[in-house]
Amino acid sequence: MISLKRRLSTFVAHLLEKSASARWILLSTVLAAVGVVGVFVAIPAWINWLLAAISLVLLVIDVRRYRLEQRRTTFVKRPLDDFADVTAKLAGDERWNVIRVHGQTFVHDTGMSLRIAEGRLKAVVQPEPYQLPRDLKSLGGRYRRERIAKDSSIFNGPGLGWASAVTELPAEASTVTLVRGTFFDRLASDYFAAVDTRRDGSDTVLAGRRLFVDRLTRLRDFDVSWLFNGVGVSTIAVTSDGMFVITEQSVRNVGEQGLLAPSGSGSLEPKDLGGAASMDVAELSIAGANRELQEEASIEPGDIASSYFLGFGRWLNKAASPEVFAVTFLNVDSHELRRRKRRNEERVYVDGVSFVRPALPPDRWDPSRAELILPPEERGRVSLPLGVALSLLAREVGTGPPELATELRRRLDESFVGYEAESTSQG
């Protein structure tokens, strides 16, 4: 039922947007109809036929122009971009930690992460919602229509974008500003910026990378950005018996088709504020990540024992969108979670949930090679959010809150002892 409502909502939105973009074609059609109807009333026939002919000519011209424009402009997946020019600008500055996962690039902002983790920043939502800039309406709007037409399961859910500066945020600042919007806003801005727009098959890119990287190869800050900059949230959950909860993304997942993702990952939403006018950024990040965890992995609120903020950064291949990460400790074991029935509304985006025992104990984790934390058979399908979550978790084991490291070691050490004992008995 939920899936049917979402498809119907998407179809109506798509139909309305199509009508708006083709308004002159619709107008010409109406004029043609009026001209034809006029043939049967007291208006002189030659006038009616003239109006009909003019309207039909306009209709043909508009249809031809519309179809020609569609053929001339194409959206193509950007060739593999390691953003070496962007990361070179950040080299030597300890604030920035570059994490690469299977050709994808993430810039971990250690300075911003520390301010958030220490509770020094609160988030407020500006009154006005995000409005797609005029420069993005034509091409961005068309890209959105094409994406929706190809996949009717896309749902126009609410979201929050980051509107404050990050790189140049004053040390004395205590608040950051978020902006309300929808997933369709994100499609026409963030996702549109992540592809190359070309015309007539030329190598000239009309839009794309320049929307979030300036001519000096610096990342554009969020306060001067044209994009929605939707905030991504992710958490890696650890069961009471020391297993990672991993979700397998479906091919219909817009972000990470067919890859292994964190226990819960998605977008920050207005409801994560719980009706509050402002909220600590770390608490808000955890609230959003745990909501996604509950929706995707069938976790109940009572299953959550504790959560910790892990970090903040920008996913360069996703138009340098802001991403926040957390770790969630559960008070239920993997056996209990395996027996639970999955929620129907998330099956279109998540193929399944698996429980993975780390291949290494925490003391041997290397943040620069986080994929080695997982068993060999899982490493080739690691998505960027999962790779970053594991890297930040490995980093926190050595430098984070003592209680986080203590709890993690306790759960995983017990898991390794139990696993080794089980392996010995089977041998």
Automatic annotation (TrEMBL):
Residues spanning the membrane: 21-40, 46-63
Entry keyword annotation includes Transmembrane helix: yes
Keywords: Membrane, Transmembrane, Transmembrane helix
Full protein name: Nudix hydrolase domain-containing protein
Source organism per UniProt: Leifsonia shinshuensis
